[in-house]
């Protein structure tokens, strides 16, 4: 750690004093600095931001050749992309739980796509085509002060292209190995004061090839999307922006259920088709008003719906639906596990326990003995239909006011209300909902031309866990508008989701054939219930950093030193056989991150990102999910005559305990036919490691994959 900090400080010092070119640039005004939107809800120069922000611009997005959003985030220092299977990916900042994106807020044009019912971001199912993205801003650090609970560790803000910049038609097709079959079509046009863009897109692939045991992996995905964005100027001061997004698709999921009780494997194997049908809807409307040059406000409303529909058939011993066994599970899951172990060994004897447990176990064993076939040594089976449909709805309304009180003082404040509802017979035993009110305010005060003080707080009231206050204070020293040092202290929270806190997890199995103990519909014995009293996770973060833009060199550099502490952490895996979420865990993270973006020549661009992290975790799962070193390197080159290439390297010394290294090479040729343009591109991905990707079952037959795309702009 000490060595890495010394390296970072040396890099910073070298950047500040490395010769006449640097010095001349350092103390010169830089009039055309880019602006960051995500950090404080105010437009700010990068050197003035109270934290570290990575920007993935349109050029990088195109050069990467990425088909899916998570792949773009590999360019962000400290961001970990862990595929769970071919059609589900988890993105986390600095590790922690790899199963869910519990601590990351994700926005699309200001609309949160974080599913608070189940603490998830369905990255591959977000109804948005990569071709419609203008830029992605990633605030690397806690930002509850700006975006509320769940912005605990980072914020990913995806900004789409404005309709006025999308006139004309675009067609694109992508074909390749592993069943890759994507398409995109869009058309945009304008009228007096208004613009519109409509895009349709689809994505399809076969996912991973085989599991750890060599069997085929059913994890292909197929989806179709529609996006409509319309902007209209009402007058010189007012405008409307309306968006509509729809998505429909199917994700293969293996029926991985294994019977708990000893039954015959043949011919009673459960159905292999356990696929998930995914349907999403989202719509937002924003009204913006400029009261004058120093005062503006907007009102935005969002409506969203997520549907994950899944029905599948599985087989189990008929006595798994015994009311006595269920009563035993409710009293002591460990007792049922001991009872099941006795059955598996052929011993029809109740384990030691209370008199009530032994009495229930004796009744259950009588039922089991009546269905036991001594010639085969197995119990009579029963197969039934399981419904795991999940539906979530959200409505949120936000009002934001931005006011410049003077040339040196700006203030942003606002109020928001959000209603979330989740409905699942299996996981929640019906519908649950929660309401969240938020009040936020932040200021930016230029004390003098060099010193910048920023602060603010978010007050939230969540009717499921209570109220919280998340503050932040930051001091920036601006050597020039393009170069700044920063010191930041912030606090953040994450609210437990409905499933963690209020799960009522039980399987009502229908259409049992043969009937189970005379029942055609019954409750499976295993169940789980949330504690109902989980508290918010709490984080305290400290950061020292530097950002510099060297205009004459085309160089942008950011260095960050951080120390984060998370208490009341909920780390336990959520399994029906082991459902014990608690606030008993903690996590400490410290390290250094650096990011360099350098336009070396008009034809060459280099981008480097690196993260070094040391951690101390109380839970074994959090101990294995954070790599010590991770990073990326990119080289973009324009060869002239329409030819261009890009070479990317991604690496992590431990991605969920597996080493990960990959290179991506993209070569493209642009052709001009009058006002029309065609781009032909091929991308080759080559894995440099020989390990599974994130989990032991994520394996490919070949370490490389190739796909080709053709795009026409009219």
UniProtKB/TrEMBL annotation:
InterPro entries named among the record's database cross-references: Beta-barrel_TonB, Plug_dom, TonB-dep_rcpt-like
Keywords: Cell outer membrane, Membrane, Receptor, Signal, TonB box, Transmembrane, Transmembrane beta strand, Transport
Pfam families: Plug, TonB_dep_Rec_b-barrel
Residues annotated as domain TonB-dependent receptor-like beta-barrel: 280-667
Organism domain of life: Bacteria
Signal peptide, first to last residue: 1-23
Subcellular location: Cell outer membrane
Record's bilayer topology term: Multi-pass membrane protein
Record flagged with keyword Signal: yes
Domain TonB-dependent receptor plug: 48-154
Keyword Signal: yes
Similarity remark: Belongs to the TonB-dependent receptor family.
Name of this protein: TonB-dependent receptor
Organism whose genome encodes this protein: Geopseudomonas aromaticivorans
Lineage: Bacteria, Pseudomonadati, Pseudomonadota, Gammaproteobacteria, Pseudomonadales
């Amino acid at each position: 750690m000490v060595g890495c900090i010394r390296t970072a400080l040396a890099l910073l010092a070298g950047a500040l004093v490395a010769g006449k070119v640097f010095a001349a640039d350092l103390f010169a005004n830089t009039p055309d600095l880019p602006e960051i939107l995500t950090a404080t809800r105010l437009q700010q120069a990068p050197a003035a931001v109270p934290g570290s922000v990575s920007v993935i611009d349109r050029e990088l997005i195109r050069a990467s050749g990425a088909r899916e959003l998570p792949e773009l985030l590999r360019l962000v220092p400290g961001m970990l992309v862990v595929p769970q299977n071919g059609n589900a990916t988890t993105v986390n900042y600095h590790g922690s739980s790899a199963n869910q994106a519990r601590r990351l807020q994700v926005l699309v044009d200001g609309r949160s796509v974080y599913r608070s019912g189940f603490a998830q971001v369905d990255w591959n199912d977000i109804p948005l085509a990569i071709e419609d993205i203008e830029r992605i801003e990633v605030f690397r650090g806690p930002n509850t002060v700006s975006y509320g609970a769940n912005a605990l560790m980072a914020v990913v803000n995806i900004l789409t292209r404005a309709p006025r910049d999308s006139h004309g038609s675009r067609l694109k097709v992508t074909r390749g190995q592993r069943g890759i079959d994507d398409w995109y079509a869009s058309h945009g046009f304008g009228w007096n004061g208004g613009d519109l863009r409509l895009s349709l897109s689809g994505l399809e692939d076969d996912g991973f090839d085989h599991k750890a045991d060599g069997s085929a992996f059913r994890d292909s995905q197929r989806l179709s999307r529609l996006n409509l964005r319309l902007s209209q100027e009402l007058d010189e001061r007012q405008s409307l922006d309306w968006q509509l997004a729809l998505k429909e698709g199917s994700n293969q999921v293996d029926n991985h259920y294994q019977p708990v009780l000893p039954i015959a494997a043949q011919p009673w194997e459960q159905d292999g088709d356990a696929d998930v049908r995914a349907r999403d809807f989202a719509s937002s409307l924003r009204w913006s008003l400029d009261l004058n040059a120093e005062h503006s406000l907007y009102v935005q409303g969002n409506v969203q719906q997520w549907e994950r529909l899944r029905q599948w058939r599985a087989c189990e011993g008929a006595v798994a639906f015994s009311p006595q066994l269920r009563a035993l599970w409710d009293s002591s899951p460990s007792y049922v596990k001991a009872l099941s172990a006795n059955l598996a060994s052929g011993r029809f004897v109740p384990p030691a326990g209370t008199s009530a447990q032994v009495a229930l176990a004796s009744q259950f064993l009588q039922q089991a003995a009546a269905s036991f076939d001594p010639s085969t040594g197995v119990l009579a089976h029963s197969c039934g239909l399981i419904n795991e449909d999940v539906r979530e709805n959200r409505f949120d309304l936000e009002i934001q006011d931005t006011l410049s009180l003077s040339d040196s003082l700006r203030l942003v404040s606002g109020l928001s209300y959000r209603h979330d509802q989740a409905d699942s017979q299996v996981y929640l035993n019906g519908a649950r909902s929660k309401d969240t009110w938020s009040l936020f305010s932040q200021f930016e005060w230029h004390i003098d031309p060099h010193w910048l003080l920023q602060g603010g707080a978010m007050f939230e009231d969540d009717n499921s866990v209570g109220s919280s206050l998340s503050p932040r204070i930051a001091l920036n020293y601006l050597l020039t508008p393009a170069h700044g040092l920063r010191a930041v202290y912030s606090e953040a929270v994450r609210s437990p989701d409905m499933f963690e806190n209020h799960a009522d997890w039980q399987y009502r199995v229908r259409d049992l054939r043969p009937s189970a103990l005379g029942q055609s519909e019954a409750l499976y014995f295993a169940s789980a219930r949330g504690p109902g009293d989980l508290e918010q996770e709490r984080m305290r973060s400290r950061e020292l950093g530097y950002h510099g833009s060297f205009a004459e060199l085309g160089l942008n550099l950011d260095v960050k030193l951080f120390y984060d502490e998370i208490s009341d952490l909920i780390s336990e895996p959520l399994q029906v056989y082991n459902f014990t979420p608690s606030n008993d865990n903690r996590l400490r993270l410290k390290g250094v991150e650096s990011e360099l973006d350098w336009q070396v020549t008009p034809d060459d661009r280099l981008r480097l990102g690196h993260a070094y992290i040391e951690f101390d975790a109380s839970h074994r799962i959090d101990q294995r999910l954070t790599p010590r070193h991770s990073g990326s390197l990119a080289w973009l080159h324009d060869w002239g005559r329409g030819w261009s290439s890009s070479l990317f390297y991604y690496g992590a010394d431990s991605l969920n305990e597996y080493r990960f290294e990959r290179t991506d090479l993209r070569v493209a040729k642009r052709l001009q036919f009058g006002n029309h343009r065609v781009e032909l591109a091929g991308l080759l991905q080559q894995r440099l490691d020989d390990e599974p990707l994130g989990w032991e079952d994520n394996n490919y037959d070949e370490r490389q994959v190739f796909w080709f795309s053709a795009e026409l702009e009219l």
